[in-house]
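Supplementary Methods, section 5.1.

A reviewer requested that the exact input to the structure prediction be made available. We therefore reproduce it here, unchanged from the version used in the analyses.
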Amino acid sequence: MSQTVFVLEDDTDISRLVQHHLEAAGFAARLYANPANVLTDAERQPPALFLLDIMVPGGDGLDVCRRLRNHPALSPVPIIFLTARAGENDRVLGLELGADDYITKPFAPRELLARVKAVLRRFERPATPSVISFEDVLIDASAMQLKVRGELTTTTATEFRLLDYLARHPGRVFSRDHLLDAVWGDARFVTPRSVDVYVRRIREKIETDPENPRFLKTVRGAGYRFEVPRPVQ
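The structure derived from this sequence is encoded token-by-token as follows.
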């Protein structure tokens, strides 16, 4: 069965171009010129990925992204912004809302497909899944689930991959550039600042006090280190 991509794009020429190349690559595409029915249709049949323009009539892609990330069933579905807004602040805002990639117009269809496939690969389950558990945190790689204090905590695929990578290498210091290579691969929109955004999002989910983290530590001038506190003897 083809993976379905929901495309929110009000420019008919662009949406048809995207649809043509997605379908040629084996995907199914559902086109939306405004946000009105995107969430309702996704609740009925969740897509493999959302491709969102930011500036569309009747709302905007940023608000759709925000609502998706607050939706218990749809929050794990990856999101790519496809937009003419190319400023760094726009990209960072998209990241802060939970986007997994950010493509600016004009774009090359081949690059678009490569980025869609790269984001979907982040959702692939590891070949040798295992569970990491410490204190009140449980990271289940096979289910791509995070539980904190016994409660299932929603994450995006990118958040989960970054957390899982750090937690599987406790005590090691990783530079931002290393984490970009390990988690994002060849995604071009991400920068060292992007890593900081995701670290902040992860801390808000696993730390009791995100401003004074116990697990995900900043190593000034070097990067980040994950620490699993030792039990008190």
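Residues 172 and 216 are 11 Å apart (CA to CA). These observations are discussed further in the main text.
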